[in-house]
Amino acid sequence: MTSVLLVEDDPVVRAAITRALTGQGHIVHGVALAIEALREVTANKYDVVVLDLGLPDLDGGDALRMIRGVTNTPVVIATARDDEAEIIRLLNAGADDYLVKPFSSEHLEARLQAVLRRARDSKQLVIGGLEIDVNLRRATVDGQELSLTHKEFELLSYLAARQGEVVPRAEILASLWPSNRDDQTLDVHLSWLRRKLGERAAQPRYLHTVRGVGVRMVAPQ
User: Fold this and answer.
1) N or C terminus: which one in the chain shows less Cβ crowding within 10 Å?
2) How many CB atoms lie within 10 A of CB 54?
């Protein structure tokens, strides 16, 4: 069974989501405050966290950063806020997915399963001088550790897992940014990754763009 930490201050909503997830076979523990959520993820192991943003003691974005400071447990944001800039900010801050209320129990379950599949598929990846430990969320190039945001790491490991393949842009966006399929978002993250890998689009080492199709990751020649 999957253990879910549900962080939602509205008791009616919390009860409804708990019933829905329990009905899907999950073990759900609900809390109403960010500080309670932080205590839970510090003391106990959960498979996934479902986090509301409008918490009474702390903004959900701050709660997300605090949770990310102590655990790599997948976090799915579930909130009524639908501002695109806010969604991008939270995904870059470490959220694994983002759901805008209201949503169906089937939609929530599908998103949770997708996040859990990505977590289960974690492994070690090596491409030339690039080494990625997906479980530890650590990447090094030629022995030097890379300082990556949560979403940069996800993009890097996603492409590395498909080494040698041309991964379509639409597929990357659908997998990593399901709530925001803007090409510019991908371009910006690729640019940041290239800079940290010590390359430029005009002189790629690891990340090769196939114009009009997608991105291929290969070892430097």
Assistant:
1) C
2) 12
pTM over 0.70: no
- The range of the structural domain enclosing residue 156 comes to 124-217
Q: Is the dihedral of CA 57, 58, 64, 69 positive or negative?
A: negative
Express each pLDDT in 98-115 by its tens digit. 999 888 999 999 999 988
Instruction: List the strands of the sheet with 144-145, edge to edge.
Output: 124-127, 130-133, 138-141, 144-145
User: Are 60 and 161 found together in one domain?
Assistant: no
Residue 82 token pair: 């639908």
Identify the domain boundary among 73, 97, 120.
Answer: 120
First-to-final CA distance of the chain: 45
Phi (first) and psi of residue 62, to 5 degrees: -70, -40
DSSP state of 47: S
**Quick one: DSSP state of residue 163?**
T
**If DSSP codes are grouped into helix, strand and coil, which group holds residue 51?**
strand
Distance CA 54, CA 33 (A): 10
Q: Which CATH number does the domain housing residue 88 bear?
A: 3.40.50.2300
Q: Kindly state whether residues 116 and 28 are assigned to the same domain.
A: yes
- In total, how many domains does the chain have? 2
One-letter amino acid at 98 equals Y
What single letter denotes the amino acid at residue 56? P
Residue 94 shares a structural domain with residue 128? no
* Residues 66 and 104 occupy one common structural domain: yes
Q: What is the DSSP code string of 12-29? A: HHHHHHHHHHHHTT-EEE
